[in-house]
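Hi there, hope your week has been kind to you so far. No rush at all, and the record is pasted right below.
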Amino acid sequence: MKKGFIITIIPSESNGKVRSVFISPFLIKFLLFTFFSIFILNSVLLYHFFNFEIDKNKLNFLIKENETLSKKIEIMKIKNDSLTSKIEKLVDRINKLRSYAGLEPFEEDLLKMGIGGELLPREEKKVLEERIDYMLNLASEFEKKINEMENYVENKKKELEHTPSISPVGSGWIVSGYGYRRDPFTGKVKLHEGVDISSNYQSPVQATANGRVVFAGWKEGYGLTVEIDHGNGFKTKYAHNSRILVQVGQSVKRGEIIALMGSTGRATGVHVHYEVQLFNKPINPLNYIIPDHLYFD
């Protein structure tokens, strides 16, 4: 006798035939195998489908993230270029100040921190961040240097502005120099403490540096005289004038007209007697008449 199952099918109608179906064990195994195969196949398909959706979402996220990163990199590149340009201007400004101060210029290699080579977006972003941080620190350091140099230059400028550096007469000729000579009135040899510069009567006499008028009036032997204290150990004297145009306590600038040339006092002709003193000791004024293209203004 064959192994298996017999299924009897009874029809609902009265005239129908009763049928019997034999189901063998093989058929049962085949049906079970087919069912489980379909189930497994569906499970695999569902797994790959959901994984594909996850990968697709992840891919979309990465694409968007990459676009955002690219935009950030572009913005950072613009900031980097702008910052580099500003620092180059700062370096140029510093070097001009250092040149004036007689110092060596800064090495421009400080600015060379290149990116170089092909980089992935994240690597490029990191390098740009590092470079921008470096440039910001550099800019801060340069600002300190500029402040130091500007203070130095400003102090130097004030010092030079208060140091005699031009002729007291715009156009004239020296008729008597600094040093020992025979006094034209007494015949004795004595130190001539200044220089005598002659020009036309009532030619303008100008201050040779910034300062404050400490004397303006008649002085024995010198006639109408102006004396200026320049505040850094220097004093200047302008004598034999025909007219004085300033008063005691007045501040004057280099090149400002302070008197008109004359021959008052003990003078043999029209001229200005010009003296320069450093800490109350007379020095040769010709050492403090600097050519126009050399003195700082």
